[in-house]
């Protein structure tokens, strides 16, 4: 039985991350057009390139190739009325709501998607890949990658906020009868592109 290989890449840095706010559908901080295709040779055989629908994910996907499939299940967590809001503002004006969201995975005081709903969406999508062998390269968001790791590792909901996912980091998952997290060899700074 041939394995399913899924490499999850976090989109490159945006202003939202630098400014500590929930993201809008914004472009990357880097000049992604100049860097287009610069990481296409990262894999011996080209994987099937998947992308979340947001601009920051699609632009990052362009670093790896031009032919991508947009996958709605890879979309960032819907933050409702908190979209674009700095976390400092929420700490000042809605501290109870922010605390509830951080501690209760079923809570969505912003009117968007709860962490529990996000995790269920990502788990459902992972299950669809189980019967599809081959290598998939999915460009997505930190929250989606956290949810995928939690599903594979069977972590409790409290683990969600203790997983850090850096821009352009890679997380490798493999399915061969069961999902496994695979830690990869560290590449030197000269082998990686900085945003």
From TrEMBL:
<dbReference type="InterPro" id="IPR029033">
    <property type="entry name" value="His_PPase_superfam"/>
</dbReference>
<protein>
    <recommendedName>
        <fullName>Phosphoglycerate mutase</fullName>
    </recommendedName>
</protein>
<dbReference type="Pfam" id="PF00300">
    <property type="entry name" value="His_Phos_1"/>
</dbReference>
<dbReference type="InterPro" id="IPR013078">
    <property type="entry name" value="His_Pase_superF_clade-1"/>
</dbReference>
């Amino acid at each position: 039985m041939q394995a399913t290989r899924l490499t999850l890449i976090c989109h490159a840095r945006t202003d939202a991350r630098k400014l500590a706010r929930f993201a809008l559908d914004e472009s990357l901080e880097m000049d992604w057009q100049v860097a287009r295709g610069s990481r296409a040779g990262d894999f011996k055989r080209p994987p099937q390139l998947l992308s979340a629908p947001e601009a920051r994910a699609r632009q990052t996907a362009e670093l790896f190739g031009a032919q991508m499939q947009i996958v709605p299940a890879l979309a960032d967590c819907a933050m409702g009325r908190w979209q674009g809001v700095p976390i400092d503002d929420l700490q000042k004006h809605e501290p109870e709501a922010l605390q509830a969201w951080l501690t209760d995975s079923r809570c969505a005081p912003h009117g968007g998607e709860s962490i529990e709903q996000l995790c269920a969406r990502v788990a459902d999508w992972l299950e669809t890949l189980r019967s599809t062998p081959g290598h998939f390269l999915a460009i997505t968001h930190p929250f989606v990658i956290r949810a995928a790791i939690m599903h594979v590792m069977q972590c409790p909901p409290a683990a969600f906020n203790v997983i850090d996912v850096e821009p352009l980091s890679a997380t490798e998952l493999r399915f061969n009868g069961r999902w496994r997290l695979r830690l990869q060899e560290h590449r030197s700074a000269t082998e990686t592109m900085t945003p």
